[in-house]
Structures are given as structure tokens and as C-alpha cells.
Amino acid sequence: MKLTENFYLNEFTKSDVANHLGISNEPEDWQLVNIKNTCTHVLQPARNWLNKAIEITSGLRSDKLNKAIGGAKNSQHMKGEAADIRCFDNISLFNFIKNELQFDQLIAEHKIGDKIRWIHVSYKGIGNRNQVLIATKKGNKTVYLNYTDELFKRIYSKN
Asked: What is the pTM of this model?
């Protein structure tokens, strides 16, 4: 099912873990509405700006799938409101979404060298918080820090 010009439902529901464990990851009607909104208001405008493909690495997560991967109990992925995405230039994509689009939550997820590994973005429609965070490791634990330009530059600058 085509959601927008460049995004399809199977991109939002694919999961190797769900396939391996035999877990259904098909959306209910209300989740499908949220998925379409996320694609329409965030992913497609970002894709149009980037003019290159954006890969959804994690979209919808059924309750069973979310438990199987150890996702947050209140994850917006379970509502179809969130996607983890990546492209050839995650830093530029992150900054475009942060500066140009409405969203609920935007997280620069972890670091590989001086690059963002992936971007978590969510969209609620009504009541978007425009919350921007940076996920990083402290020991073995992931911590979420409030975004500042200085912190972002410190974490993602070339050393």
C-alpha cells in the first residue's frame, strides 16, 4: 500500500525480528492513520528536501514485537507515530527536520565516528512537543540529553 509518493506500508511494518519470531506486525486502522500522518507530515517532506532515499529501519511495532526487542513500554512506534530512519547524511536530515518541520520528538540516536547512527522521529498531529534529544551512552546505559547546539557540535564534530 502506497502511503505517500515515496513511502509504502511494507517499509513501515517490516521487521526481521517479527519474521523470525512469527509475530504479526500489521497495523490496525487507527495505527494506519497515524502512519500516514507521520509519512505525510515528516517523512515525505524530508524526502522531498533531501531528494534521495530515506530508509525506515523501524516503524510500527506491535505490542508483542515491542516487548521482544525490549522497546519502551510507551513507545510511539506501537501507535504508528514513530519511525527510526537513516540516509546518506543523517546530520543534514536531522537538522532539516529540527529546523523546518513539525514533529513530536526528534532524537539523534547514538554515534558512529562523527555521524548519527539513526534518527528517531515521531509525529502526533495534535499536541506535538517539538522535543529534540541526543541519545548517547554512559557506560552500558543509553541516556537522553536535551539538545543544544553546543552539545550537538561537541558530540558530532570531527576530532
From this structure: 0.94
